[in-house]
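Objective 1.3, modelling of assemblies. Example input:
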Amino acid sequence: MAELSTVDIDFGDDGLVPAVTQDADDGEVLMLAYVSPEALRRTVDTGRAHYYSRSRDELWEKGATSGNTQSVVDVRVDCDGDTLLYVVEQAGGACHTGYRSCFHRSVASIDDDGETVDVETVGEQVFDPDAVYE
Amino acid sequence: MAELSTVDIDFGDDGLVPAVTQDADDGEVLMLAYVSPEALRRTVDTGRAHYYSRSRDELWEKGATSGNTQSVVDVRVDCDGDTLLYVVEQAGGACHTGYRSCFHRSVASIDDDGETVDVETVGEQVFDPDAVYE
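Predicted structure (tokens):
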């Protein structure tokens, strides 16, 4: 038997922790979103990725609208207990722009103040967002 | 020639963005830390991963103390411009606890309020933190 220990997740001042989402098959980092205690509980209990939208101020289940669901294979907790990693089987694409990963732009150069970058699109668009989100 | 476009990075209210760090060789997600404009500029300009410590309130170069440096192969920007992905060649381990990844604990179960989890350690300890950080 593996030994278990108990961790209190360090939800921040806003009651949320960031969760990195990674593809279980090829290891691609798909997105980063935020998670409330209720979103985490539902994720662990159902095996379907849930997050908390800071802009809409509501719990959401990934793919409930778009069909681009995430079946959760593993949930990891980092050393400080203040970041999560969801390892998922991704249906379709994770990004609302139709790309497989939200991280589909690579930095080519940066300006002197460090706030503006030139980027090249490198990822793969796998669905048409206009057809999915109306 | 690839077409370039310009992105203003959306540094948050605290002037920082989260950066996910991934191993270039095997795709393992190693850590999440925060980045200031200056940390990002130094990362892009030098090819060595820089972050900004919220607890120590200072810029830091990964591995400057521990020797566990990160050579940056690629910097990605997400769709909203508010999260970065550093793809790196990691020397030694990324985690201050001596593990290769900070995400070395897997959630086995969760309590009803979603704030406490039982975890199993699954990662690989690759150095002795007591010997590295004195």
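The two ends of chain B are 49 Å apart (CA to CA).
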